[in-house]
Design brief:
Blueprint: H1 2-25, H2 40-57, H3 69-82, H4 84-87, H5 96-100, H6 118-127, H7 143-155, H8 161-168, H9 179-184
Helix pairs in contact: 3-7, 3-8, 6-7
Bound molecules: heme C.
Length: 188
């Protein structure tokens, strides 16, 4: 009786592994195309894992830089050079990259991270977010630059006038066609 039960479990596990193997090797379980929306399971797994990682690893200390105009201006400049192609500019228009990126990159002028703790935003910029297209900038930017970027993102919706002007004049590096045109072609 017990033997049959154990054998049953082994058969189910082996059959499951075969299904996963065939699904992956035939490109059915993890399709390779980027012009799709992620499934519920994929989204849940990615978010749950990211939240747990933030709880474990993100610093709870505040941004060490003062909220000064030069720091904010540096953050905006860095954002224009390294981030706007995926996260958009002040007018919210997506670039050709943002319109076709899988995972979808939040357009920060609309879906900003002002409420997130400094250490969480710092962690995401420094380490990147695996399998989403969000690069890790820890190797290419200095610690100070990552904090300047975090500072700008934290204050994006309440910038002093001089910084606000710099933010508003950042240009979309490669504007995508309007949403209606993209929808006709099945885009996001
Ligand atoms: C190649 C595209 C790409 C570039 C360039 C990029 N990101 Fe991202 N970023 C993403 C994607 C995609 C996500 C969403 C990840 C997810 O689904 O968890 C993301 C997520 C984030 C988040 C988390 C947003 C949230 O709602 O929690 C922050 C903060 C962020 N990026 C900041 C930056 C900064 C700052 C830069 C520039 C230094 C940058 N990113 C450059 C693609 C990009």
């Amino acid at each position: 009786m017990l033997k049959g039960f154990v054998l049953g479990i082994v058969v189910v596990i082996v059959a499951g592994l075969v299904v996963v193997y065939v699904g992956v090797t035939q490109g059915l379980l993890i399709p390779a195309n980027a012009d799709a929306r992620p499934g519920k399971l994929e989204t849940w797994a990615a978010h749950a894992s990211l939240r747990a990682t933030m709880r474990r690893e993100a610093s709870t200390s505040p941004n060490p830089l003062p909220t000064s105009i030069p720091n904010l201006l540096n953050g905006i400049k860095l954002y224009g050079e390294n981030c706007s192609m995926c996260h958009g500019v002040a007018d919210g228009s997506p670039s050709t990259i943002a319109a076709g990126l899988y995972q979808h990159a939040p357009q920060l002028a609309k879906d900003g991270v002002e409420d997130d703790p400094d250490g969480v935003t710092y962690w995401k910029i420094y380490h990147g977010i695996r399998m989403t297209g969000m690069p890790s900038f820890g190797k290419s930017l200095s610690d100070n630059q990552v904090w300047e970027l975090s500072l700008f993102l934290k204050h994006m919706d309440k910038l002093p006038p001089q910084a606000e002007r710099a933010w508003k004049t950042l240009k979309n590096p490669a504007p995508a066609a309007p949403a209606t045109e993209r929808a006709k072609k099945g885009g996001q």
